[in-house]
Amino acid sequence: MTPYFPDLQHVDEIRRSLWTDRALSRASVMVGAGMSRNAEPAHAGRTTMTTWSELISVMIDRLYPAGTSVERRRKELSDQAGATSTALRLAEEFSAAFGRSALDDLIVQSIPDAEFLPSSLHTLLLELPWSDVLTTNYDTLLERAAASALGQRYSVIRSPEEIATASRPRIVKLHGSFPSSRPFILTEEDFRTYPRRFAPFVNLAQQVAMENVLCLIGFSGDDPNFLYWTGWVRDHLGPYSPKIYLCGLLNLSDSERLLLHRRNVTPIDFTPLFSREEYSGSFRHYAALEWFLLSLRNGRPYNVLEWPDPPPTDGQSMQKLPSPLPPPAGNVPHRERPHPSWH
Predict the structure, then answer these.
(1) What is the pTM of this model?
(2) 8-42+117-306, which class in CATH?
(3) How many CA atoms, within 13 angstroms, populate the side-chain half-sphere of residue 308?
(4) Which residues of the chain form CATH 3.40.50.1220?
(5) CA pair distance 245, 78, nearest whole angstrom
């Protein structure tokens, strides 16, 4: 029996917004650093893309060398490495101590973009008919995956000046892009001045959030710019604001869920389907995201050119995976497609 999944109705709602009969869907996606963890090494010897915490550790080592009188401070910062506020403050310190160019160089050296390739998850994500794809990632995995994604042709926006000439769907690099679209937004000052220096990006992100259901993937939802944009939408649209969904293995407390709901963010937690007892490590995150993307793909309306067989619904990499949500009832004519029990 399929495990109980209380957030099923929200996945269905995203599918309805994604597969509309309009020229453009009513769903957009915002991609964070967690998605880059699914990249595939281009050469032997590497395992996974640098994590947010690992980048923070590099800054700590440079600012507070081991074996000095600042060992206590090192430990305090290491314990807080997962907090966005800690990363922003450390980046500000690093820029002040060594210069902005040194910070940008550290980011480039610590995130070896060219040594990784997009995975099948990147391609699967970009084959869905998103209205827009927003990302705070510096790497080029999404752009490279878009080149091989079937059915979609994305324009890539790396600077505000490119907005006017780009057509939808778009991949929008909100925080800079390798190799040279700078600054890479990371310091406290970057975020403080972002609404003024990158006003066109702010307007674009607010427009996307006003017009579409927005999915957050590989994203924590506590990015200062994200909070600013979505807060602006709440202020102006109130109860008419489109839904925002935070998707992932979340393990949220009741108070964290309450805070998200107050910000008009609905969590979709895949933990009931992918327990730690049955799935482990990075495979657990990969499996959960593949299940989600396949379930969204299965919402595609029936295409007569595919008759008599609908598109495949099973993941290519999964060995033991809950069945993705099937196509909606009646989506494939002349065939009985029993709906599995989701209870």
Answers:
(1) 0.87
(2) alpha beta
(3) 4
(4) 8-42+117-306
(5) 30
